[in-house]
């Protein structure tokens, strides 16, 4: 087992994996870490689909073009899930409030699933595995992904997590400095300093992209991320959420 400190501070996204299978003991450790995730109200408004079916992984690869989906040994898909609570409420003769029709209900399911995924990431890193979070599974073709995974109403994909024995060791990406992430007691009012610090980080990322091992680019940070935002403007997630029983009204 690696140290938690190393797992948290040296983690990189791994997209290439060995063919070696992950031991079931290791997967059980990851599952236990996921189950012990803190959640809103202890409601555990999430579920995880563990995929080891190669044909299904390749179908998801065909949709996304993300090679790590077909080359990973296990693919975990984290979902917001109110279906389970609805089933039990019906069994007990209790009314299920339309919580999925609220923004708070939707956010809570996303937070719970995201926290669960981070538990899995840390557990996988500690166990010596490589991992890669794949958000594109949420947006590439939500209806098709829901069909492939047989998702019932009340369940939608938040993010996927590819797991496997690492076949690569990418350079550690630079992250924002403390001054642009942590604020004392209130959000900073010094916009001039914050802008300067962010501009410096932008330059650091550009230099990293131009000099990193395993393929270089000329991307900066700000412009590159804004391109992602523009692309995401074409997603129709609200329509998909309505199809899955999340008719957000307030």
Describe the structure.
- The chain has 250 residues and is α+β, with helices and mostly antiparallel strands.
- 48% of the residues lie in helices and 12% in strands.
- The protein is built from twelve helices and four strands, in the order ααβααβααβααβαααα.
- The chain has a four-stranded antiparallel sheet with strand order 1-2-4-3, with helices on both faces.
- Helix 2 (24-35) packs antiparallel against helix 6.
- The model has no long low-confidence stretch (mean pLDDT 96).
SS summary, helix count: 12
If you compute it from the alpha carbons, what radius of gyration comes out, rounded to the nearest whole angstrom? Answer: 20 Å
Strand numbers in spatial order across the main sheet:
1-2-4-3
Write down the overall geometry.
Answer: globular
Low-pLDDT stretches are none
How far is the first residue's CA from the last residue's CA?
A: 46 Å
Which H/E pattern describes the elements? HHEHHEHHEHHEHHHH
Task: State the helicity in percent bands.
Answer: 40-55%
Mean pLDDT: 96
């Amino acid at each position: 087992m690696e140290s938690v400190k190393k797992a948290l501070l040296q983690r990189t996204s791994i997209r290439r994996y060995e063919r070696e299978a992950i031991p079931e003991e290791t997967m059980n450790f990851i599952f236990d870490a996921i189950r012990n995730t803190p959640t809103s109200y202890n409601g555990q408004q999430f579920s995880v689909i563990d995929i080891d079916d190669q044909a299904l992984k390749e179908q998801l690869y065909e949709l996304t073009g993300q090679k790590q989906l077909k080359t990973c040994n296990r693919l975990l898909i984290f979902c917001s899930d109110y279906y389970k609570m609805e089933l039990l409420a019906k069994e007990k003769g209790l009314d299920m409030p339309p919580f999925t029709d609220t923004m708070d209900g939707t956010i809570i399911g996303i937070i719970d699933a995201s926290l669960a995924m981070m538990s899995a990431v840390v557990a996988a890193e500690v166990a010596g595995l490589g991992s890669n979070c794949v958000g594109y599974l949420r947006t590439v073709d939500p209806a098709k992904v829901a069909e492939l995974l047989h998702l019932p109403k009340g369940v939608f994909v938040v993010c996927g997590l590819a797991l496997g024995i690492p076949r690569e060791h990418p350079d550690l990406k630079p992250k924002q400095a403390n001054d642009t992430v942590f604020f004392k007691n209130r959000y900073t009012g010094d916009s001039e300093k914050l802008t300067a610090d962010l501009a410096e980080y932008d330059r650091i990322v550009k230099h990293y992209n131009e000099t990193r091992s395993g393929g270089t680019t000329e991307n900066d940070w700000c412009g590159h991320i804004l391109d992602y935002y523009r692309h995401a403007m074409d997603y129709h997630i609200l329509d998909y959420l309505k199809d899955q029983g999340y008719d957000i009204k307030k």
